[in-house]
Amino acid sequence: MTDEQAAEAVDGAGPDGATDAAPGAVTDNGTDVPAHPAPPAAPPVTAPTPGPSGGAPTFPSVASAAADPGRWGRVDEDGTVWVTTADGERAVGSWQAGDAVEGLAHFAVRFDDLRTEVDLLVRRLTGGRGEARAILRSATTLRERLVDAAVVGDVVGLGHRLDAVVAAAEGAEESERAARAGARDDAVARKEALIAEAETLAEETTRWKHAGDRFQAMIEEWKSIKGIDRKTDDALWKRFSRARETFARRRGAHFAELDRARTAAKARKEELVVEAESLTGSSDWGPTAGRYKELMAEWKAAGRTSKDADDALWARFRGAQDTFFSRRSEAFSARDAEFSDNARAKEALLAEAGRIDLADVDAARAALRDVQERWDAIGKVPRERVREFSARLKEVEDRVRGAVDRRWQAADPETEARVGQFRARVEQFEAQAAKAHAAGDRRRAQEAERQAAQWREWLAAAEEATR
Description:
This protein is 70% helix and 3% strand. The radius of gyration is 64 Å and the shape is rod-shaped. The N and C termini lie far apart (167 Å). It is mainly alpha-helical. Helix 8 runs parallel beside helix 10 (386-410). Strands 1-2-3 form a 3-stranded antiparallel β-sheet.
């Protein structure tokens, strides 16, 4: 029998769905009408029984109605279909299209369809499939439909099973609500942590590249955090956005200042390059080399410009330096060769000066003057040998000068007179010392002896000068 035929059979029932046939009567087509069974005792409505050790809840089982539909309902002689409930019988429809067995089977299939829907809700609930709120809504709707559903089956048991589903779904919804609240709190905490980090970076960091990359990563992390209500999320996003804007302003100001500094550094380095290039032809080696050293210090103090500009300017500056110092090196090499030749000439001249005969003082003085004149004409020697040559020439000059002084002192009558004066002073103080000793004046004796000793030293020096 099709659903359309069943609908027609139901539509043929009276307004109240009742028939005049008594229980056990035979219908017009000869079908026995099942006797009216006693309604089953209604068990109390209970919540689902918790599983072992507080595990998943269990739900009252409900038998399939299709196996024995006569257990749960009947068809009157006039075709009215009844189902047994906890409050007695309830008419669910009219069956006019066939025998009573077929009618009960049709309404039992409808019951089993409802039972299947409830079973699906139980599986979703216990299997974690679907939100508890949706399951609760569906279970509540099914329970309301069951009150006047046109079905034949264990409506009482199915009602209890639905009550258990509703109770379990309410508990699950509460747990889910708590879990959502906890997840929301965690999500808020994660975003607030991102905000705190963003605000710190915005106010303090100077590592612009690192901070910019970190802000991008934080945005991606922000997008992955779900479960916050729109109002709270908007407020959090405004704080995060303000931190990003603060960072962007600070970074922009930094790079604007950096651009200004780089522009100034470029202008200053261009000036230094121009001056360095102007000095490349100088032959004033010492002062120019010193100026290049100063230019290098000024270059370092000028700061950096863009890499390309800095590299190009440095290449020009370095090229100017290299040009000057290459010229100086070539000049110094030529000079060093000349100085080496001068050193060999002065070596020979010193050897000649060492052979000057001091017996003839006048000839020795003339020979020394000749050596000195030729010495000056030879010119410079390598710097590291200047002191050596000066000392060796001075030795020759001292030898000649000493010979001249000794001859002059030996022939000087004033020198002889001075020797006599010194000798007389020595004798005078020695006599005073002897007289003081004789008088017992120890202090005056010591003072006279000290004076005598001093004059003896001067006497010795004067006598030496006359030799």
